[in-house]
Design a protein that fits this description.
By secondary structure, the chain is mainly α. Helices cover 71% and strands 1% of the residues. It has helices at 2-9, 11-28, 30-33, 71-107, 109-123, 127-137, 142-153, 155-169, 172-179, 184-221, 232-239, 248-275; strands at residues 52-53, 59-60. It has a two-stranded antiparallel ribbon with strand order 1-2. A hairpin with a 5-residue loop joins strand 1 (52-53) and strand 2. Helix 10 (184-221) packs parallel to helix 11.
Length: 283
C-alpha cells in the first residue's frame, strides 16, 4: 500500500497508473464494452468514418475498416491481445531470466561462463532475424510469437540479477546460512530470491512495454499475428494503405499501442524510483 501511495504522489507514476489501468480495464471488459464480433465483415459498410450511424441504428464510434469491421471492437480486442502477449512474455521470460541469473551469480565458475556466453550470443542476434528464422520453421501464431519474445527478453533479467546475486553471495546473512548448514535450495529461496525480487519487478514492468511493442512491431512487419486476428500492429499495417482516404483505420490502433507503451514505461520508471533509486540505470 505504501508503494502505491508513493506511485500516486509521483506525476509520472500517476499518469502511468491511469493509462495502464484504463487499458487493462478495456482489455478485460472488451466483450462487454463492444459485444460485436471483431471478425464480422460487411463490405457494404467499409471505410465508414467515426461516429457513423449503422443500418441497425447504433453509432460506430471509431468507424469501420477496409472490410467493414467495427474498428472500436477490433481495437479493444487488439488491446486484449497486446496485454495477453505482454503479461505471458514477462511471466515466462522473467522466470527464466531470474532463475538463470541467480544460478550464474551464485554458482560461478563454468556455470557462470556458459550462461553469460549464452546471454552474449542471444544479444548478438537481431530480434527481427530471430523472429524470421523461427517463423520460417514454424508458422505465425500467438504461441510462436511468445516464444520469440521470451527468447529475446529473458537476457534483460539475467545480467542484472547475476550482478546482484554476486553481491548477495558474499553477504553476511548468506555466509551465516552456509555456516549453519543451509542447503543451496534454501539459500536460493529464502535469502537470494527475496532480495532480487524488487529488481525483477522493475525490469518486468519495463519489459512489459517492450514485449507489447515487440508484438506490435512483428505483426506490423508481417511476421507476427496474422489476419483476421485483431492485433494492433496488424491493424496499423493494413490501414496504412488507406491513410489518405480512411485515416482512422490505422490512427486509432496506433494511438492505442502508443499510449499503452507510454503508460507502462511511465509506471515502470516511477516504480524503479520508488522501490530503489539505486536501480536507476539497470533497466
Amino acid at each position: 500500500m505504501g508503494i502505491l501511495l508513493r506511485l500516486v504522489r509521483s506525476p509520472k507514476g500517476l499518469i502511468g497508473l491511469v493509462l495502464f489501468g484504463t487499458f487493462l480495464v478495456l482489455a478485460i471488459l472488451a466483450p462487454v464494452i463492444s459485444p460485436a464480433d471483431p471478425r464480422k465483415q460487411d463490405i457494404f459498410l467499409r471505410n465508414q468514418p467515426p461516429l457513423s450511424r449503422m443500418p441497425d441504428g447504433h453509432v460506430s464510434l471509431l468507424g469501420t475498416d477496409e472490410l467493414g469491421r467495427d474498428l472500436l471492437t477490433r481495437t479493444l480486442y487488439g488491446i486484449r491481445v497486446s496485454m495477453l502477449v505482454g503479461f505471458c512474455a514477462v511471466a515466462c521470460g522473467g522466470a527464466i531470466g531470474v532463475l538463470l541469473g541467480m544460478l550464474s551469480g551464485f554458482e560461478g565458475g563454468g556455470v557462470d561462463f556458459i550462461l553469460m556466453r549464452l546471454v552474449d550470443a542471444q544479444l548478438s542476434i537481431p530480434l527481427i532475424l530471430l523472429a524470421m528464422m523461427w517463423i520460417a520453421f514454424t508458422e505465425p501464431s500467438l504461441v510462436n510469437i511468445l516464444v520469440v519474445i521470451v527468447a529475446a527478453g529473458w537476457v534483460q533479467y539475467a545480467r542484472p540479477v547475476r550482478s546482484m546475486t554476486l553481491t548477495l553471495r558474499s553477504s553476511d546473512f548468506v555466509e551465516a546460512a552456509r555456516a549453519v548448514g543451509a542447503s543451496r535450495r534454501r539459500i536460493y529461496v529464502h535469502h537470494i530470491l527475496p532480495n532480487v525480487i524488487p529488481l525483477a519487478i522493475v525490469i518486468a514492468t519495463l519489459q512489459l512495454a517492450a514485449a507489447i511493442l515487440m508484438e506490435g512491431s512483428l505483426s506490423f512487419l508481417g511476421v507476427g499475428l496474422q489476419p483476421p486476428t485483431a492485433a494492433l500492429g496488424l491493424m496499423v499495417s493494413s490501414g496504412r494503405r488507406y491513410i489518405d482516404t480512411a485515416w482512422w483505420i490505422c490512427t486509432f490502433p496506433g494511438l492505442a499501442l502508443m499510449f499503452i507503451v507510454l503508460g507502462v514505461y511511465l509506471l515502470g520508471d516511477a516504480l524503479r524510483d520508488t522501490l530503489d533509486p539505486k536501480l536507476r540505470g539497470l533497466s
